[in-house]
Write a structure and sequence with these properties.
Elements: E1 5-14, H1 18-26, H2 28-34, E2 47-51, E3 63-72, E4 76-83, E5 86-97, E6 100-111, H3 115-142
Antiparallel strand pairs: 1-6, 2-3, 3-4, 4-5, 5-6
Helix pairs in contact: 1-2
Length: 144
């Protein structure tokens, strides 16, 4: 087996200032509105969980165990993301652009030699690029 690690990458312009996007990424109530229920705190080292819909046939109980790995206010948030056989990281990078924010998301570390990881990679790739971004945009539009 080779080291077939893969990443999902998203590059999206959001017509909202970085401070507002940052709030949506780091305030648990807002984060729950566009991503999942959580007990997140924007503190390096903080361990937290996301509560997702279980996928029993994939060995996923719905719990995503995470830890804040790196945080740079209004610029970068990197977390570990584990559950259902995954041991990955998600990085959100915010770059001011005009009257908005360029948001780069990288969900990295998928082992494509592992069937569960490959299944998650295929399913989550389209999810990050479509459903998650749409939900984030909706939450931003509804937030002061």
């Amino acid at each position: 087996m080779g080291d077939a690690r893969a990443a999902i990458e998203v590059d999206e312009f959001l017509p909202h200032p970085p401070a507002k996007v940052w709030r949506a990424l780091t305030e648990p109530e807002l984060l729950a509105r566009w991503l999942m229920p959580n007990d997140f705190k924007p503190v390096t080292g903080h361990r937290f969980t996301f509560a997702a819909k279980p996928i029993p046939n994939a060995g996923f109980d719905g719990t995503i165990a995470c830890r804040v790995l790196d945080i740079d206010e209004e610029r970068l948030l990197r977390i570990s993301w584990g559950g259902g056989g995954l041991d990955t990281t998600v990085t959100w990078r915010l770059v001011p652009e005009g009257h908005g924010t360029r948001l780069f998301i990288e969900h990295a570390g998928f082992d494509l030699d592992d069937p569960a990881n490959e299944f998650a990679f295929r399913g989550m790739g389209s999810g990050w690029r479509t459903n998650v971004i749409r939900s984030l945009l909706r939450t931003l539009a509804e937030t002061e």
